[in-house]
Fold:
Amino acid sequence: MSDKIHPIPRPLVRTNQWVIFLSVVLALATGQKWILAIPLVAGLSGLLLHFNPVMRLAKLFLKKDPSKYIPEDPAQQQFNQVIAVVCLGFGLLSFLLGFNVIGYVLTVMVGMASFIAILGFCIGCFILYQWKQYTYRRSLH
Structure:
């Protein structure tokens, strides 16, 4: 197995974003908070095992070779996935412990971020870029 990290085809990233968004909407609309475990488990699996079942399933439906799609940066996607997993995990835990306001805030934030990313603006990318700018400017002093 190669140590080289390959770009992620955009359709796989979009599918993952749709699963996150739809899971949040369904969980909150139906009151079935366990639905949040779907993107949470997929995200954790992607981070810890480098196997995201949502993306792996979506890959079966690609019509072209994965290299023919617009590439997404794996490091950026991993950063975004960490944010989503942390917020979904604490959101689900908050619901289970009866801290519903915190649960709603965290899960709605993730749902909104995933939908905004689908529309074309990546909030996680913006946060990482600003952090890198901050650390760079700080290193100059």
